[in-house]
Amino acid sequence: PMKGLTMDDPILQMLPEFDAVPNSGMRKIIAKRLTESARDIPHFNLQIDVELTGLMALRKQLNERPGADYKLSVNDLLIKATALALTRVPDANVAYTEGAILKFKRVDMAIAVAIEGGLITPIIKDADQKGLAQISSEMKDLATRARDRKLKPEEYQGGTFSLSNLGMFGISSF
């Protein structure tokens, strides 16, 4: 949630184009109650394991193609799948402010990258419109420059959806 933002707030200028749908009184009450609930009521998380045999086979097949000059990671495939899901369910590609729901017109995926002392989220802009090779290349470049602290602010500010993946470390949820 972007608590306290007004539609003329400078931070909104960093975001991709969006339609602002004013919050109804009911939407505001729902947001308030969910925030109170998250803060005040004990929670338990539910999770399921996902069968990735097909995805892993596809990754292997693509990476072993004759002449393939790049290697796709599972993360590359997750970025693309998430971006496509957001185009199919555009109501998930939104941000909440006190005044309005911001419905983004682009899918700019912010991908969590661990750096010394913290975390940063470089952005694959228009990820839904890019192929796997381009996503893979951009992600490798962004991650390297993130670790070297050489990203420009516009490369890590303004994403419409964030993705964190710790599966490569054997973590199933966090």
A few lines on this structure:
The chain is 33% helix and 16% strand. The protein contains 4 helices and 8 strands. It has a 3-stranded antiparallel sheet with strand order 1-3-2, with no helix packed on it. The protein has a 3-stranded mixed sheet with strand order 7-4-8, with helices on one face.
Q: What letter string, H or E per element, gives the SSE order? A: EHHHEEEEEEHE
Strand order in the largest sheet: 1-3-2
Shape: globular
Q: Round the Cα radius of gyration to an integer and report it.
A: 18 Å
N-end to C-end Cα span: 20 Å
- Structural class, from secondary structure content? alpha+beta
How many helices? The count is 4
The fraction of residues in strands falls at 15-25%
Strand count, sense and closure of the main sheet?
Answer: 3 strands, antiparallel
Q: How many DSSP-defined strands?
A: 8
Low-confidence stretches: none
- The whole-number mean of residue pLDDT values reads 84
Helix content: 25-40%
Quickly list its features.
4 helices, alpha+beta
What does this protein structure show overall?
Strand 5 and strand 6 form a beta hairpin. The strands form 3 sheets. Strands 1-3-2 form a 3-stranded antiparallel beta sheet, with no helix packed on it. Helix content is 33%, strand content 16%. The protein starts with 17 loop residues before the first strand and ends in an 11-residue tail after the last strand. With 174 residues, it is of the alpha+beta class. The chain contains 4 helices and 8 strands.
